[in-house]
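At this stage, I wrote out one protein's amino acid sequence and its backbone structure tokens, and that material follows here:
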Amino acid sequence: MAIAALITWLLTAAGGFVLLGTWIAKGGVRQPSSSHLPPPVIFGHFLLAVAGLVLWIIYLVIGTKAVAWVAFALLIPVALLGFFMVLRWLPVYRARAAGDPESQPAERHFPVMVVGGHGVFAVVTVVLVLLTALGVGAS
């Protein structure tokens, strides 16, 4: 289960990189006032997720349950920030047809399938990390 969590975490990260890259490329950093996603929230989400992933890899190498629990604990604010960003992104997605594409926020350009996949893999990752930390399925 720990390896499955790593795989879903890496898939989640791949989707997150696509979203972050899109946001940056479409002006999210250059014009933060036009974005509904505050840069500190985006970069905080990213940094906490990366820190948790690094800890998860360390857990896989050394096998200390405390490291697994810290990785899981980091996922809680990551998930909350992600949920916050989805709530801020939904109105932008719904209003996508209106207005000039140049004046729209950077997150308007997020591929819907990537957003959905990122969210689904994130939820699966949180569940798998929790179950692993609890020792479910361990032999």
